[in-house]
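Dear Dr. H.,

I hope your travels went smoothly. While you were away I took the liberty of generating a structure for the chain from your last submission, since the lab meeting agenda had it listed for discussion. I wanted you to have the full record in hand beforehand rather than looking at slides cold. The sequence, exactly as received, is reproduced here:
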Amino acid sequence: MKSIAARFSRTPTITKLSLSGLGVGVLGLIVQWIADPAKFPGFPPGIVFLVVCAALVVLASGRWWAPIFAVLISLWIVVGGWAADQLTPNLTSGDAGTVVGTAVMTLGLAFAAITGILGMLAGHSAARTR
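The corresponding predicted structure, in token form, is as follows:
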């Protein structure tokens, strides 16, 4: 069995970019947490979810479907947050830190979802030609 590091080194760059998007999402959550710690009882759970999904992408690296974890968590947070009417109030909040943090998180997660989908398409195409 190939090591995770060896598989990850051969992972398409676009899949690695989806991990960067998750990292930006974490940064946005940290900004929100600093701006309004009362919104998060203890530690923001979204950070844990994003880190776990990023770890799953790394663990599954080398497989064309590895970015699915980045795509699913990103869409769950952004689309679910919008559908539950929690994203829009944060973007229109009177607290600049909440607005900036939410915008950074949303952009990072949207980037992670898009690059994750593109990474799966690239990985699937490469797997079919082997």
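Two observations you may find useful: The first helix runs from residue 4 to 9. The mean pLDDT is 91.

With kind regards,
E. W.
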